[in-house]
C-alpha cells in the first residue's frame, strides 16, 4: 500500500510542473554573467581607444563612432546571453524529459517580455536624445522589473535577483558616470552568483 504522504508529494510535484516553468538552468545565469563581464571589458577598451578615461570622473561627449560601437556591442551581448540561456534551458528540458513549450512557457514569456520591450524602447529613446549616462541604469531597472513580474511562473527565487537588479538600477541612476560599473555588477557578477546558487539548488 502506498504511503499517503508519498502520494501527496507526487501530486504536489505534478502541480508544480504544470503551473511553473522549471527548466531554467543555473548555468544560463553563469553564462550570461560571463558574457556580460566580457562585454563590459570590451566597452572599457573602446573608451580607452577613443581617449576616454572612464574612471576619471570627467564628463565626456561621445563621438558618433563610439556611440554606435557601444550600441552594437550591447546587441551582441544580448544575442549571446539569450542564446546561451536557450541552449542550457533546452539541455535541462531534454535531461528531465520536460516539454519546453507549453501554456506556462507562454505566460512566463509574456510577463517577462512586456517590461523588457518597454525598457528597450525607453533605452532607445535615451540613446536618441543623447542621455547615455541613464541607459545602463534603465536596463537594470526594467530587467529587474521583468524578473519580478515573471517570477510567479518559474522559480520564486528569481524575484530576489529582480529586486537586486532594481536596487542597483536606482543607485546607478544617481551616479550616471559609473553606469558601466553597475551594469557589470548587475548583469555580470549577480548573474554568476545567482546562477551558481540556482544550479546547486535545482540541479
Describe the structure.
By secondary structure, the protein is an all-alpha fold. The chain has one domain. The chain contains seven helices and no strands. The two termini are 31 Å apart. About 6% of the residues have low confidence.
List the helices and strands and how they pair.
Elements lengths: L3 H16 L6 H24 L14 H33 L6 H26 L6 H16 L7 H17 L4 H24 L1
Helix pairs in contact: 2-3, 2-7, 4-5, 5-6, 5-7, 6-7
Question: What distinguishing features does this structure have?
Answer:
elongated, 77% helix, mainly alpha, 203 residues
Strand content: under 5%
Measured on Cα atoms, how large is the radius of gyration? 19 Å
Number of domains: 1
What is the typical, i.e. mean, pLDDT?
A: 80
Which sequence of SSEs, written as H and E, runs from N to C? HHHHHHH
Number of beta strands: 0
Portion of residues in helices? over 70%
Low-confidence stretches: 7-19
Span of the ends, CA to CA: 31 Å
The count of helical stretches stands at 7
Major sheet attributes: none
| Helix-strand category | mainly alpha
The rough form would be described as elongated
Could you write a compact summary of the structure shown?
By secondary structure, the chain is an all-alpha fold.
Amino acid at each position: 500500500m502506498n504511503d499517503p504522504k508519498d502520494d501527496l508529494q507526487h501530486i504536489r510535484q505534478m502541480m508544480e510542473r504544470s503551473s511553473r516553468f522549471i527548466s531554467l538552468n543555473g548555468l544560463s545565469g553563469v553564462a550570461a554573467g560571463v558574457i556580460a563581464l566580457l562585454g563590459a571589458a570590451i566597452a572599457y577598451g573602446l573608451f580607452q581607444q577613443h581617449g576616454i578615461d572612464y574612471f576619471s570622473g570627467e564628463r565626456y561627449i561621445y563621438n558618433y563612432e563610439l556611440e554606435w560601437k557601444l550600441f552594437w556591442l550591447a546587441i551582441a551581448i544580448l544575442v549571446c546571453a539569450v542564446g546561451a540561456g536557450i541552449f542550457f534551458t533546452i539541455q535541462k528540458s531534454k535531461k528531465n524529459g520536460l516539454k519546453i513549450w507549453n501554456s506556462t512557457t507562454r505566460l512566463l514569456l509574456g510577463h517577462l517580455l512586456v517590461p523588457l520591450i518597454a525598457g528597450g524602447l525607453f533605452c532607445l529613446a535615451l540613446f536618441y536624445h543623447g542621455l547615455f549616462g541613464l541607459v545602463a541604469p534603465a536596463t537594470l531597472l526594467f530587467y529587474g522589473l521583468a524578473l519580478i513580474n515573471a517570477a510567479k511562473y518559474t522559480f520564486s527565487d528569481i524575484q530576489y535577483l529582480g529586486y537586486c537588479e532594481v536596487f542597483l538600477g536606482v543607485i546607478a541612476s544617481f551616479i550616471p558616470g559609473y553606469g558601466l560599473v553597475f551594469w557589470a555588477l548587475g548583469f555580470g557578477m549577480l548573474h554568476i552568483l545567482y546562477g551558481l546558487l540556482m544550479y546547486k539548488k535545482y540541479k
